[in-house]
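Allow me, if you will, to draw on your knowledge of protein folds for a short while. I have a record of one protein: its chain in single-letter code and its fold written as discrete structure tokens. I should value your view on which stretches of the chain appear to form regular backbone elements. Thank you for your consideration; the sequence and its tokens are set out here:
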Amino acid sequence: MKSHSTLSELNIVNLTSLWQAAGAPFGANHTGDVYHYTQVADSDWPNRFWLKPGADNADDIATAITAFNELPGYLTFPYWDLERRGHDLLLAEAGLVQRFAQAGMTMPLTKAYATTFQLDFEQVTDAAAARLWADIYPKGFGYVIGQQIPTAAMEQIQFYLARYDGEPVGTGMLYNTGDIAGIHGIGVIPEMRRRGFAEEIMQFVINRALEDGARYAALQASQMGKGLYLKMGFDDLFEIRNYRPVTF
């Protein structure tokens, strides 16, 4: 059994690798001395700027903030404080504003869900399905993942579309790193919520992860989704605070 500290680190590895997998087809991944960032045009996601492992002193963070503020366009600066150094205060002092927070969560995968699903699931394997997935996603989350991302990255990232009575109602993503299954983008359109569909999508994606050989599931939960994941058995391990310039 992996320790909580190891699982926290592997959760972050999965997340940052996902961003880079999404950006790779577009040459959108960049690296500085103390940071990485991924910025894909015509998409709100992944578009993240983050510190390299070990870049955790005040000088490193000041260097990163300067570079972040000089970049054009829309980026989010997530900060995870696994060492509890409290350096996110430096982001606030530099004028960045925390826009939202997420809970980094993991769960051992022991057995598949024996569920009779109300939903039908389709993995995105062509441009038409990628377009439909990208059309549905903003209805669940309020931001855009450009159609070009599932179209170009469907070999590296598993994108799933959930249908109810033939109509698309939700999305999910699965991205594996080692024995860690990263579960991302679990969303349901507003008019189809409170029917258990989000939990069904989670169960389906976890079953697929088990088929892929994963031993742990990792995700980053919004406040709205956290209760479901706690109920399913995920542990709440750490917090990600997401900052943006005051102008965004």
The first strand starts at residue 29 and ends at 31. The mean pLDDT is 95.
